[in-house]
Please model this.
Amino acid sequence: MESNFTNDNNYKYQKAKEKVEAIKGFYGNLLAYCIVIPILAYINYNTTSFLWFIFPALGWGFGLLMNGLYAFGYNPLFGKNWEERKIKEFMQES
Model:
């Protein structure tokens, strides 16, 4: 019984650690976005009249949005706790 409890705690710890790492990664990405995009905008405004910086801003912004949704556990395609349910399902099949 003790082994099962320990395994469960290890699993929960690993999942929590993964979630914290994902959130840290998101905030790092957000910080980089908030620094780089204004620099690109500044360069763009001082070199040409074509607003090319909007393309990296939108592309990176979309990636940032997806990263944030993943980091904070929102998955509109699979619903809440989909991964957890699938893991349990596959473990029962074995």
Observations:
- DSSP finds three helices and no strands in the chain.
- The radius of gyration is 20 Å.
- The longest helix spans residues 2-47.
